Model the fold of this input.
Amino acid sequence: MPTSRRTFLQLSSTAAAVAAVDLHLASPIWAQGKAAASQPARVFVDNRRTLGEIDPNVYGSFLEHLGRAIYEGVYEPGSKRADANGFRTDVLDEIRKMHVPIIRYPGGNFVSGYNWLDGVGPKDRRPRTLDKAWNSIESNQFGTNEFMAWCKSAGTLPLMGLNFGTGSAEDAAALVEYCNVEKGTKWSDMRRQHGVAEPYRVKHWCLGNEMDGPWQIGHMTAVEYGTKAADAGRQMRYVDPSVKLIACGSSNSRMPTYLEWDREVLEQCYEYVDALSLHAYYGNTPEMTGGDSSKYLALNLAMDKQISEAAAVCDMVQGHKRSPKRLWLSFDEWNVWYRARSGDAVDGHEKEAPHLLEEVYNLEDALLVGGFVNTLMRNADRVKIACLAQLVNVIAPIMTNETGFYRQTIYFPYLWALQYAKGRTLDLLVESPRYEVSGMGEVPYMDVAGTLDAQSGTTTLFILNRDLTNAHNIEVNFQGNGPSRVANSMVLTGNDLKAFNSFESPQKVSPQAFSKPVSSTGRATLEIPPRSYAVVQRVG
Ligand code: AHR
Done:
């Protein structure tokens, strides 16, 4: 019997337990200096030592035709909140203010059964279709042109997903032609007939979604997928040589074909692609963590490990092919997701805009998201795109109803990354007391990442304190005089790790001002509260 997506999701979250306890913490990131529990943690900052330029697209997000992400999320004609295009102005304003750089669209599992032609042209002629991935009705009232117009208003870029399930390589190249060619060809002229004269010049494209997964429509073997990706890549580049193409890597690190899939795919399509995708979702489940929050807060280290493993496979194939090209990584789905993951939460029952994947995030989820932000920062040399999955209503930082929206807990660490993680990642030396985590060995209490924005002379530290009970002092030592003035300092913390926001209580978990560090020349001491994520920005 074929594995249904719903069954597979349940199986794979159980299997995650195995992966989570199987971490070998030998990476240089967390194997740095060790400080006794009673000693302060120490961070050494030398502005001459950096790990790489942070691509702003590493703090992208994701909108799938799924549940209420598009319909009722960003598009709700008839609502008092909608503009003439039917776009929700409150959500649009919020996303514009956040400066989300890039948004993946239209899926996700949805894309593997999606015919993009159903979503273009006069709205009254668009078909109502059954979305088989989420068992929902798709009205097709929002499609490629609506998304492009919405991106322009939101000040973001599209990261377009292609249907590699029911769609052909030719269909993929046709969509590139529709979007990127100015005029004089079948598909570019169709776009013009649809009222859009200027091409969109979409740069980044995902060649399918999670094609290694038995739940995926059109699931295939690695060799089949790699061959199709090479063919599609070739055709797409004939249409527009400037496109950047991302091949589907493993759907998660628990897949039985993990890394082997990636290697076989790249053996087929290495020369036609620019990047490999990674996906991962985490949860504080009995299976993954035994409900132990101190273990849960260490799971961003699994993301560090997954990145280095994917990079190793890319480099292995590069060597094998003797290619001068080095692939970069696109971590184009990552988040906490474990509660709204089965039953009615993933089955739309053939309804329009059903309530699917409406995960409610608490304080500890937000702290772990802070950890993920740190992980992405310190892998800036390799990860050039990443997407918090997702953005509105579906495993999302922003939740809407007919009257407005509220911000979930995970919104805040994501926002801080968007606002403050700019420039280059600092190659910090971090010494921290550690604690024992079952299956993971010794994990540092303090997870610290840092950035240097040379233009403004700003140094920013992002600090996760995994200690659930104790505050920790951190001594920050700057090489030379260091920055002199604290510009911003905020912390997300609280007594109740399970506290969450809602329409009734939208600010239950929200950032607080963080007490100024005690400073002397070249050195600052910060007291970091227990169970917290903090950002401290210094200039001068
Ligand atoms: O983001 C929700 C789903 O998770 C996506 O549709 C799929 O790609 C992944 O399994």
The pocket of alpha-L-arabinofuranose is lined by residues 64, 107-109, 209-210, 333, 389-390 (CB under 6 Å). The chain has twelve helices and 27 strands. Residues 1-34 have pLDDT under 50 and may be disordered. The first strand starts at residue 41 and ends at 45.
